[in-house]
């Protein structure tokens, strides 16, 4: 069954909103911290993980990158001293990405910019009721 014009319009609005908000978030992070949005996301996910480390496959899944895309990103973060790699003792082929102290410090510097940009570009125009409605709708789509 084909989409109605209203359904297609909503889908396109959702796509534009996501791209517009992410673009603004990244611009704020780059301007203030010379940190691209995917780099911030990797640092944040590692900081939240036990031992500040995640298997590369798990990290790629969490930050919505391909394995090869994450590998290139980790290469850059490693060159900057923000992340290191460690071999997995139980799987010779497995690797962990590990947040360094420098990476943790960089994340802490960038966090207020990141959260402020989310508030400004996403949450600010919405009221509390809108935020709760958005949460319910995304939960219906299985986004958790």
Q: What does this protein look like?
A:
α2 (37-48) crosses α5 and α3 (56-63) crosses α4. 68% of the residues lie in helices and 12% in strands. The chain has a three-stranded antiparallel β-sheet. The protein has six helices and three strands, in the order ααβααββαα. With 144 residues, it is of the alpha+beta class. It has helices spanning 5-33, 37-48, 56-63, 67-79, 101-123, 128-140; strands spanning 53-55, 83-88, 91-99. It has one domain (5-140): Arc Repressor Mutant, subunit A (Orthogonal Bundle).
Gap from first CA to last CA: 28 Å
Strand content: 5-15%
CATH superfamily: Winged helix-like DNA-binding domain superfamily/Winged helix DNA-binding domain
Radius of gyration, whole Å: 18 Å
What's the quick description here?
It contains 6 helices and 3 strands.
Topology record:
Layout lengths: L4 H29 L3 H12 L4 E3 H8 L3 H13 L3 E6 L2 E9 L1 H23 L4 H13 L4
Antiparallel strand pairs: 1-3, 2-3
Helix pairs in contact: 1-5, 2-5, 3-4
Keywords:
about 140 residues, alpha+beta, 6 helices
């Amino acid at each position: 069954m084909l989409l109605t014009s209203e359904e297609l319009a909503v889908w396109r609005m959702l796509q534009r909103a996501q791209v517009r908000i992410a673009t603004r978030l990244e611009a704020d992070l780059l301007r203030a911290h010379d940190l691209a949005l995917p780099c911030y996301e990797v640092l944040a996910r590692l900081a939240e993980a036990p031992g500040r480390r995640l298997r590369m496959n798990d990290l790629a899944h969490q930050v919505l990158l391909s394995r090869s895309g994450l590998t290139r990103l980790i290469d850059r973060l490693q060159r900057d001293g923000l992340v290191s790699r460690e071999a997995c003792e139980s799987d010779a082929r497995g690797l962990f990405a590990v947040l360094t102290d420098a990476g943790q410090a960089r994340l802490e510097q960038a966090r207020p910019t990141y959260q402020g940009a989310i508030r400004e570009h996403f949450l600010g125009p919405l009221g509390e009721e809108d935020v709760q409605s958005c949460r319910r709708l995304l939960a219906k789509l299985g986004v958790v």
